[in-house]
Amino acid sequence: MTTLKINGKQHTLILDPETPLLWALRDHLKLHGTKYGCGIEQCGACTVHVNGRAVRSCGITVGEVADKAITTIEGLSPNSSHPVQQAWTEVDVPQCGYCQTGMIMASAALLERKARPTDKDIDRSVTNICRCGTYNQVRKAIHLASQIKEGV
Amino acid sequence: MKIFQFNRRDFLKTSAFAGGGLFLGLSGFAKLAEAEAGKALPPYLRIAQDGGIHLGVPSAEMGQGIHTTLAMFLAEELEVEMSQIKHIETLHHPDFKHPTFAEWTNNAANFQITGGSVSIRAWHLPFRQLGATARELLRSAASRKWNVPLGECMAVNGRIEHSGSGRSLGYGDLVEIASLLTPIKNPNLKSPEHFRLLGKAISRLDTPIKVNGTAVFGTDVDLPGMLYGTVKHCTVFGEKISGIDDSKANEVQGVIAVIPLEDHAVVVANSTWAAMQGAKALNLQTSGGYNDLSDENIIKQFRTDLAKQGVPVAHRGDPVTFMEQAAQVLELEYESPLQAHAAMEPLCATANVTPEGCEVWAPTQSNDFAMMIAMGVTQLPPEKIKIHTTYLGGGFGRKVEYDFITAPLLASKMLGKPVKVTWTREEDTRHDFYRPPFLVKMRFGLDAEGMLQALSAKLVGPAVSRRWKMPPPWLEENGYDWVVTIGMFDGYNLPNRTPDLSKAYSIPNLQVDFVPSDIQVPTGAWRSIGTAHNTFALESGLDEVALAGAQDPFELRRKLLSHNSKALAVLDKAEELANWGKHPKGRFQGMAYTDYLETYQVQVVEASVSKRGKVTVHNITCVADCGQVFNSHIAKQQLEGGIIFGLTAALKGEINVQNGQVVQSNFDDYPMLKLKDIPEIKVHLIENHGPPGGLGEAGTSLIGPALANAVFAATGKRLRRLPIKSKDLV
């Protein structure tokens, strides 16, 4: 039995503690905003926050996050009001959209660490893969989110 | 949101439907559309009593923004804001057979499909006509209700206003009367100068749900009592399962069943993770297989087949005689390797098969192909099968196939429960229908002034459409295959099967042949199809011709395209915007031109190459004339996205085959470009109110040769095979 604290709520699951967090979120808790893309922490489609830091949920087990605060895209904000989601909407970033929730989670964690990230900071911190090629709009949206967050 | 299914083929009159509202029939509209546009493929629309608009569309949304653009056509003519579109979905319907594919095959290909960069071309007019038809019905309804002349009833922003009295009614208040009226034929369409929406950068309707994580992709389908599965294929191409040892798989907690099929097994469990663990533990015994298959053997076969006589693709003048007299002959060979699609969403599908019926939920580019496979597996008639198209987490041609729909159908049929089957990334990478490898040999003949006078080209590679059994003239018995010949003087005017060379390079003596050389690696449609290998060869080759003839690459193309005003305008604009010839020190430029499905385009790359052979792309300028642009934001997304897709194939990995199997398996050994690799990309669209060209694939094939030409400018090294490898540049 594992208890997970997700988006501010406690969930008790009967699960092998070796189960990756990704699959606990998707199949057991039906939080489908977190996506499976590679299973080997390469693509970032499954990015969530664990104690405020961006983590690829395919590479961490439920046992490892049992006592930690987990945030998924569903818990990032009510009504897409998080500055990153506002900026994403304003720039109209998504194409197919499959990688976008992971991109948003990675970007939100970056802004928590660094309010005004440089292009280099973005390159280093947001290493998610997008096959539709939204990258330049992602970068634009992160800078805009930084301004929104700072109240500029 | 309730989904309305429409089964009646002939639904001429509008009628009040369950739940109320104005329901426009499809076939009725078909007849209207036929008179107007010669097309017989209309869409579907419901205006609810609250004024909300519910729209069913033929095309799958895979990132290309088609849901938004189709809604814009309707909203423009219906005089509503985009915010009134409450629901839009891909609907599977017999009336949605794709008119362009029918046109290309003299009406032999008759299916609903999303692909080929032709959704806008096929559907823009029918959706505008649908909007206009509904608008006229609502005006008539108001005119009757108020008993005033029709001419005094104006459609404005979702309401009908009466000019004389100032009265107005929302569309929702008029649908009951409107639904009793007969639609008029040939409603007036707006002229472009009156467009409120079309041509503008309108926000996508799917952005809100893609930003909050609620968009339902194929992987996100969830049904009560659903089981989860994954697949494990035989690793060697051509292998079949001869036996199975599932003892270890069955030990994995949660595994429910292991179902062996011909060349793959399905593992079903109570979670995807358990299924994946089970598949890992599964031991497949196999027989047969093309164990000798390798990159080396494939290219060896192509080189042998180069000697064979090909199937004629295009011919003009007398290239044989000219080559004998030419002042200079350049003999060049260009190679393109296999590439995987690697859509971010791995293949997946869900099925619920019961004795009474079958439902499938799939991220498919062709719900008709999904229907075909569902009928085959269940033996049910089509009226008992329902295909739901989810959002696609990328398609790029891979999800036009239906191989990923078999496993959930069979598993659900056997287990009596809904089953969702999700492939691992490894299975997705190793069991693709890959971009076909190709060898393109060209001989260019130049006269004493250095001008290009002759080209003979031979394309050697697999005829990928053979597996699809596409009807002629797309695919002919002799092996001609439009999917792989496109891009080498092969027009899009398929019905005549005589390439339209009127817009192409005016090389007076021309011979293009295709030698089908089939391989045992499954190949298919990969964003940009044949232009991937043909444009790389031709545009790199022309760069070599320009150099041999001491001409500027822009100048050479201007001479060869002097008869094509759109091409000339694109060339001029690109040269100006890219500051051609004025690049900063240490950076070098390369350019390439193409026309693809009536989109004329130039890309210019500015790149540098380090001493260690590392290529850095600094910026890309793309200028395109794609006819009328309907959503400038989405059009630019498509070109920029296409460029990044092609740039990844030019700079990153390739798919290799050794010992009959694919070497790569995941993003660690088949890497993709990431944010840090992406240059500044400027996209400029030439204003044009002409018929729309294709955009979904247009950006992809041009970037490879433009970059290779820039690398040549930087290093003097000619890249005749992509992707670029640093070791070749030192």
The general outline of chain A is globular
Number of domains of chain B: 3
Largest sheet of chain B: 7 strands, mixed
Q: Give the SSE order of chain A as H and E letters.
A: EEHEEEHHHHH
CATH topology of the largest domain in chain B: Aldehyde Oxidoreductase, domain 4
Which residues of chain A form runs of ≥5 with pLDDT under 50? none
Q: Compute the gyration radius of chain B: what is it?
A: 27 Å
Count of individual beta strands of chain B: 28
- Level-2 CATH architecture of the largest domain in chain A: Roll
SSE-based structural type of chain B = alpha+beta
Provide the helix percentage of chain A: 25-40%
Q: Percent helix among the residues of chain B?
A: 25-40%
What is the oligomeric state here?
heterodimer
Chain-averaged pLDDT of chain B: 92
Name of the top-level CATH class of the largest domain in chain B: Alpha Beta
- Which percent range describes the beta-strand content of chain B? 15-25%
Descriptive overview:
- The complex is a heterodimer of chains A (152) and B (730).
- With 152 residues, chain A is α+β, with helices and mostly antiparallel strands.
- Chain A folds into 2 domains: 2-74, Beta-grasp domain (Ubiquitin-like (UB roll), Roll), CATH 3.10.20; 78-149, [2Fe-2S]-binding domain (DNA polymerase, domain 1, Orthogonal Bundle), CATH 1.10.150.120.
- Chain A has helices spanning 21-28, 73-76, 83-91, 100-113, 119-125, 135-149; strands at residues 2-6, 9-13, 47-50, 53-56, 69-71.
- In chain A, helix 3 crosses helix 6 and helix 4 packs across helix 6.
- Chain A is globular, with a radius of gyration of 15 Å.
- The model of chain A has no long low-confidence stretch (mean pLDDT 97).
- Chain B is of the alpha+beta class.
- Chain B folds into 3 domains: 15-211, Aldehyde oxidase/xanthine dehydrogenase, molybdopterin binding domain (Aldehyde Oxidoreductase, domain 4); 218-289 and 347-422, Aldehyde oxidase/xanthine dehydrogenase, molybdopterin binding domain (Aldehyde Oxidoreductase, domain 4); 306-339 and 434-729, 2-Layer Sandwich (Aldehyde Oxidoreductase, domain 4), CATH 3.30.365.
- Helix content of chain B is 30%, strand content 23%.
- A 7-stranded mixed beta sheet of chain B has the order 11-12-9-19-16-17-18, sandwiched between helices. In chain B, strands 1-2-3-4-5 form a 5-stranded mixed beta sheet.
- In chain B, helix 1 crosses helix 4 (119-146), helix 4 (119-146) packs across helix 5 (171-178) and helix 16 (531-548) runs parallel beside helix 20.
- The longest helix of chain B is centred in the N-terminal third of the chain and has 28 residues, at 119-146.
- Chain B starts with 14 loop residues before the first strand and ends in a 15-residue tail after the last helix.
- The model of chain B is unreliable at 1-20 and 24-43 (pLDDT under 50).
